[in-house]
């Protein structure tokens, strides 16, 4: 079937192409704004020590990272045991308090780079999985950009109130509607 579809004359296929192009253009249009605002968030959350990885900063057990199946063995903490670090715990707490749902995506982020790379802070506001290898805002997809705008409360000071009215969590929130339509 696919081979017999002429992508340039089939209206439905053409519309999908247009939608993809529109999402990419929108993402590119938002990229510079996102970069400069994430740099501000980076300053706000403070500096980490640069030696702690995310496994050491998450106590065991913590759901959904640690397995409940075997009490003595945790695959998440198998190479790094939890260890208190006052400096990094403070940054972690600040990221959490900037997250609308207090639920940052720790699996995406490299905590050792928190001090040097604003994008590793930005990645905490992405969907829970699948973005750990994305190296920059530019490399991220539209879905990622929208979820940062939605999940990071810093952006409510940058956007027109109508973009967040009613404020999330509310399926009628325009930004959330865009996000959920994307996900389906
Ligand atoms: Zn540390
Ligand atoms: Zn664990």
How many structural domains in the coordinates? 1
Low-confidence stretches: none
Cα-based radius of gyration, to the nearest Å: 19 Å
Q: What is the terminal separation in angstroms?
A: 24 Å
Please estimate the helix content: 40-55%
Largest sheet, in brief, is: none
Name the structural class: mainly alpha
Q: Into which percentage range does the β-strand content fall? A: under 5%
Q: List how many beta strands DSSP finds.
A: 0
Q: Which H/E pattern describes the elements? A: HHHHHH
What overall geometry do the principal axes of the alpha carbons give?
globular
Quaternary state reads single chain
Mean pLDDT: 89
Pfam families: DUF4559 (PF15112)
List the helices and strands and how they pair.
Elements: H1 11-45, H2 54-57, H3 86-98, H4 118-122, H5 142-151, H6 174-183
Helix pairs in contact: 5-6
Textual characterization of the structure:
- The chain has helices spanning 11-45, 54-57, 86-98, 118-122, 142-151, 174-183.
- It is mainly α.
- It has one domain (51-183).
- Helix 5 runs antiparallel to helix 6 (174-183).
- The chain is globular and about 60 Å long.
- It binds zinc ion (ZN) (2 copies).
- Pfam families: DUF4559.
Descriptive labels:
single chain; 184 residues; mainly alpha; 6 helices; 42% helix; 0% strand; globular; binds zinc ion; DUF4559
Quick structural summary:
This protein is mostly helical. It has 6 helices and no strands.
């Amino acid at each position: 079937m696919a081979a017999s579809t002429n992508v340039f004359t089939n209206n439905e296929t053409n519309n999908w192409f247009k939608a993809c192009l529109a999402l990419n253009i929108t993402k590119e249009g938002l990229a510079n704004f996102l970069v400069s605002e994430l740099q501000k968030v980076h300053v706000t959350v403070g500096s980490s020590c640069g030696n702690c990885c995310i496994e050491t900063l998450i106590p065991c057990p913590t759901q959904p990272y640690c397995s409940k199946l075997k009490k003595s063995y945790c695959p998440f903490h198998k190479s790094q045991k939890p260890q208190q670090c006052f400096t990094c715990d403070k940054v972690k707490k600040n990221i959490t308090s900037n997250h609308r749902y207090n639920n940052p995506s720790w699996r995406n982020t490299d905590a050792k780079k928190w001090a040097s790379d604003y994008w590793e802070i930005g990645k905490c506001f992405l969907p829970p999985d699948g973005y750990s290898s994305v190296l920059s805002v530019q490399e991220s997809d539209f879905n990622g950009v929208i979820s940062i705008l939605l999940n990071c409360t810093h952006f409510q000071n940058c956007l027109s109130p109508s973009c967040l009215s009613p404020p999330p969590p509310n399926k009628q929130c325009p930004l959330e509607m865009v996000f959920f339509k994307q996900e389906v």
